[in-house]
TrEMBL record:
Entry keyword set: Antiport, Cell membrane, Glycoprotein, Membrane, Transmembrane, Transmembrane helix, Transport
GO molecular function, one term: antiporter activity
Organism for this UniProt entry: Daubentonia madagascariensis
GO cellular component terms, A-Z: plasma membrane
UniProt protein name: Choline transporter-like protein
Top-level taxon of origin: Eukaryota
One Pfam family, short name: Choline_transpo
Record-level GO BP terms: phosphatidylcholine biosynthetic process
Length: 717
C-alpha cells in the first residue's frame, strides 16, 4: 500500500461493530452457491397473497361499482344508470339544501331532505308560490318547475300541503353541477359572496335567507358525500387528453435519459446549472406571489378566505384571494431558504457526490439494461395499485341499500333508525315524528361477510403496503446484484459476465423471496401504524386536550424517523443479500457494522448524492409542468393547439407533473442504487485489500484518492 493511502476508519472499536473483512482470494463478487433464506417468512408471504386473491374474488361477487359511478336518490335509485327511468337524469338535486347545514348531517352522514335525480340544475331564483302565481298566466312555468319535483306533484297545492306531501321544493335557485350534484352557482363581486349578483333570496317558506347560509350547507355536504364521483369527470378528461399525456411522459423519459447520459461527462456543470436554475425559478415564483398579494391588498373589500367560498369547480376563484397568494409565497420562501442552507452546509461534500455520480454513470453505461428495469417496477406497482383500488371499491359497495329515518327539524326518538321506504308513510314512526323522512343512507347488511368488511379493508390496505414494499425491495436487490458484479470485475467491462441484471433478478426471486418479504413486512408494519395514527388524529382533531395533541405529534414524528431509518437499513441489507446471499437479519447486521466501522466516509455520501438527484427530479417534473400548463391552458397556440373541452385542465397537468416525477424518480433511483452499491463494495474492498500487487483495490484510483482527501478534511474538522 502506498504512503498516500490510508486504512479504513477506526474511530469506533472494532469489537463494538464486528471484525473487519479479511482477504479472501476466492471472493470474486456476488456469491453463486446460495441457499434459500427466511423460508418461514416466504411461506407466510405466499399465504397472505393467496388470502388477498380470495378476498378480491369474494368482494367481486358481493360488490357493485355502479354505486360509486352514480349518485343515489332518496329511494336508493341510481342517477344516470342506463336502462332505468333515471337514464337521462344524471344529476342529484336537493329539495332543501339549507337543511344540510344541520349538525345532524355530520352525525348521520346524510342530508335530511328529499333528493331526486334531474336532467339539469335550476337556472334562476323561483319559489313554489311564485310559480303558482305565474302559472295562472303561463303554463310553461310549471313545466320548468316540475323538473325538480316528484312525478306525483301538482301545481295547485297550498304551502302546508306541499310541505306535508314533500312533492316539490319550496324554492329553487341558480345552480351548476359539481360531482353530479346541483350546488349553488357562487361567485364573488367586490369581495362579497353572491349568486347571480344576489346576496339575499326567499326560501319559499316566507323567510329571507343569505348566500352565506347556503355556503355553510354546501360545506356540510362536501364533508359527507362520496367525492369518488369526481372520477367520472376526471375519466372524461383522461379520455380527451391521454394522447397528449403520453407525449408529455415520453418527453420526460427522454429528458431523464439525457440527464443520466450527460451526468457522466459534465456532472459538475449540470449540477450547478440546475441548482441556480431551480433557485431562480423559485425566486421568480416568490416575486410573482408577492405582486399578486400586493395588488389584492389594495382592494379593501377583498376580505374573503378559502373557508368562505368553500368547494368550487372554478379554481380561478381561489387565485382571487389574498390568502392563497400569501400561503404560496410562504411555502416557496421556505423551500428557497432550505435549498440555500443545504448548499452552504454541504458545499464541501458535493464534490465527492458528483464524482460518485460519474462512477455510477460508468457502471450504468456498461450495464444499460438497468435503465429499462424501472419499467418492470412500474408495471408491477401498477398491478398492485390497481388490484388494491378495485378491491377497495368492491368492498365499499358490498351489500344492500340501507334506509335511515332523518328529521329535517326537531328531535325524534326514532331518528337514525332503519326503515322501509315502501311502508314508511303508513308506519308508526311517520305518525310519531311528523315531517320525518325515510332516506337512503348507505350499503350494508347483517351477514358475517358484511360485519367483517372494516376488517377486510384493513387487510386489503396492509397487504397492499406489503406488496408495494416487496416490489421495491426486489428491484433494489436485483440492481444491487448487477452493480456489485460490475464493481468486483477486475477488468471492466471484459470481466463482467453476460446478463448480470437478469442473473441477479433470478437469484433474488429463487433464493431470497423470504428475506425481501421480511424486510418489506417490517416497513409495511411501520407504515400501517403511521396510517392508524393519522386516522386517530383525524377523528380527534376537534379535541381540546393539548396533551393528546402533543402525544399524537410526537408519535407521528417518531414513526416518520423510524420509517426513514428502516428504509436506509433495508436498502443496505438488500445490497448485502445480493452480494453474500445471507438471510435478512444477518445481512442487515453486516451492513450496519460495515457502515459504522467507516462512519466518516458514510457522512459524505448518501445524503448529498440524494440531494443532487432530487434536484434533477425537480428539474424534469418542473419543466414538464410548465410546458403542460402552457399547453392545456392554450397559451402556446402558435406551436400546438391544446384540447378545448376539458372539465378540469389540472387533471392532465397534475398527471404529467406527477408522472414526470415518477419517471425521473425511476431512472434516478437506479442511479442512487448504483452509487450506494458501489459505496458498500468500496468499503468492503478497503477492508479486504491493501492496494498492493497481491491484494489490489478494485476501486478506481481517482475515486480512492478523493475519498481519502475528504476523509482527511473531515477528521481535521
Amino acid at each position: 500500500m502506498s504512503d498516500e493511502e490510508e486504512p479504513p476508519d477506526s474511530t469506533y472499536e472494532e469489537e463494538d461493530f464486528g471484525d473487519a473483512r479479511t482477504y479472501d482470494p476466492d471472493f470474486k463478487g456476488p456469491v453463486t452457491n446460495r441457499s434459500c433464506t427466511d423460508v418461514l417468512c416466504c411461506i407466510i408471504f405466499l399465504l397472505f397473497i393467496i388470502g388477498y386473491i380470495l378476498l378480491g374474488l369474494v368482494a367481486w361477487v358481493h360488490g357493485d361499482p355502479r354505486r360509486v359511478a352514480y349518485p343515489t336518490d332518496s329511494q336508493g335509485h341510481f342517477c344516470g344508470q342506463k336502462g332505468t327511468p333515471n337514464e337521462n337524469k344524471t344529476i342529484l338535486f336537493y329539495f332543501n339544501l339549507l337543511s344540510c347545514a344541520s349538525p345532524s348531517v355530520m352525525i348521520n352522514l346524510q342530508c335530511p331532505t328529499t333528493q331526486i335525480c334531474v336532467s339539469k340544475c335550476p337556472e334562476k331564483f323561483l319559489t313554489y308560490m311564485e310559480m303558482q302565481f305565474l302559472y295562472k298566466r303561463d303554463k310553461s312555468y310549471w313545466e320548468d318547475y316540475r323538473q325538480f319535483c316528484k312525478t306525483s306533484a301538482e301545481p295547485v297545492k297550498s304551502l302546508p300541503q306541499l310541505l306535508m306531501d314533500d312533492d316539490c321544493p319550496t324554492a329553487v335557485f341558480p345552480s351548476k353541477p359539481f360531482l353530479q350534484r346541483c350546488f349553488p352557482d357562487f361567485s364573488t363581486r367586490n369581495g362579497n359572496l353572491s349568486i347571480r349578483s344576489r346576496m339575499l333570496f326567499q326560501d319559499g317558506n316566507g323567510r329571507t335567507r343569505s348566500v352565506i347560509e347556503l355556503r355553510e350547507a354546501v360545506n356540510r355536504i362536501s364533508k359527507t358525500f362520496d367525492a369518488r364521483a369526481l372520477g367520472l369527470k376526471v375519466f372524461e378528461d383522461y379520455a380527451t387528453t391521454w394522447y397528449w399525456i403520453l407525449i408529455g411522459l415520453t418527453i420526460a423519459m427522454v429528458l431523464s435519459w439525457m440527464f443520466l447520459i450527460l451526468m457522466r461527462f459534465i456532472a459538475g456543470f449540470l449540477f450547478w446549472m440546475f441548482v441556480f436554475g431551480v433557485l431562480g425559478i423559485i425566486a421568480y415564483g416568490i416575486w410573482h406571489c408577492y405582486q399578486e398579494y400586493s395588488n389584492l391588498q389594495e382592494h379593501p373589500n377583498s376580505t374573503l378566505t378559502i373557508y368562505d367560498i368553500g368547494i368550487q369547480t372554478n379554481i380561478s376563484m381561489y387565485f382571487q384571494l389574498k390568502q392563497t397568494w400569501f400561503t404560496l409565497m410562504i411555502i416557496l420562501s421556505i423551500i428557497e431558504v432550505s435549498v440555500i442552507l443545504m448548499l452552504i452546509f454541504l458545499r464541501n461534500r458535493i464534490r465527492v457526490a458528483i464524482f460518485l455520480l460519474k462512477e455510477g454513470s460508468k457502471a450504468i453505461g456498461h450495464i444499460p439494461s438497468t435503465l429499462i428495469y424501472p419499467v418492470l417496477t412500474f408495471f408491477l406497482l401498477s398491478i398492485c395499485i390497481s388490484y388494491w383500488a378495485v378491491t377497495a371499491i368492491f368492498l365499499a359497495t358490498s351489500g344492500v341499500p340501507i334506509y335511515k329515518v332523518v328529521v329535517p327539524e326537531g328531535q325524534c326518538i326514532h331518528e337514525n333508525k332503519t326503515c322501509d321506504p315502501e311502508i314508511f308513510n303508513t308506519s308508526e314512526i311517520a305518525k310519531a315524528c311528523p315531517g320525518a323522512l325515510c332516506t337512503f343512507a348507505f350499503y350494508g347488511g347483517k351477514s358475517l361477510y358484511h360485519q367483517y368488511i372494516p376488517t377486510f379493508h384493513v387487510y386489503n390496505l396492509f397487504v397492499f403496503l406489503w406488496l408495494i414494499n416487496f416490489v421495491i425491495a426486489l428491484g433494489q436487490c436485483a440492481l444491487a446484484g448487477a452493480f456489485a458484479t460490475y464493481y468486483w470485475a477486475v477488468k471492466k467491462p471484459d470481466d463482467i459476465p453476460p446478463h448480470p441484471l437478469f442473473t441477479a433478478f433470478g437469484r433474488a426471486i429463487r433464493y431470497h423471496t423470504g428475506s425481501l418479504a421480511f424486510g418489506s413486512l417490517i416497513l409495511a408494519s411501520i407504515q400501517m401504524f403511521k396510517m392508524i395514527l393519522q386516522y386517530v388524529d383525524q377523528r380527534l382533531k376537534h379535541a381540546h386536550n393539548r396533551f393528546s395533541k402533543l402525544l399524537q405529534c410526537c408519535l407521528r414524528c417518531c414513526f416518520w424517523c423510524l420509517e426513514k431509518v428502516v428504509k436506509f437499513l433495508n436498502r443496505n441489507a438488500y445490497i448485502m443479500i445480493a452480494i453474500y446471499g445471507r438471510n435478512f437479519c444477518r445481512s442487515a447486521k453486516d451492513a450496519f457494522n460495515l457502515l459504522m466501522r467507516n462512519i466518516l466516509k458514510v457522512a459524505v455520501t448518501d445524503e448529498v448524492t440524494y440531494f443532487v438527484l432530487f434536484l434533477g427530479k425537480i428539474l424534469v417534473s418542473g419543466s414538464m409542468g410548465i410546458l403542460a400548463f402552457l399547453f392545456f391552458t392554450r397559451r402556446m397556440t402558435m406551436i400546438a393547439e391544446g384540447p378545448t373541452s376539458l372539465n378540469y385542465y389540472w387533471v392532465p397537468l397534475l398527471t404529467i407533473i406527477f408522472g414526470s416525477y415518477l419517471i425521473a424518480h425511476g431512472f434516478f433511483s437506479v442511479y442512487a442504487m448504483c452509487v450506494e452499491t458501489i459505496f458498500i463494495c468500496f468499503l468492503d474492498d478497503l477492508e479486504r485489500n491493501d492496494g498492493s500487487t497481491a491484494r489490489p483495490y478494485y476501486v478506481s484510483q481517482s475515486l480512492l484518492k478523493i475519498f481519502q482527501d475528504q476523509n482527511s478534511k473531515t477528521k481535521n474538522e
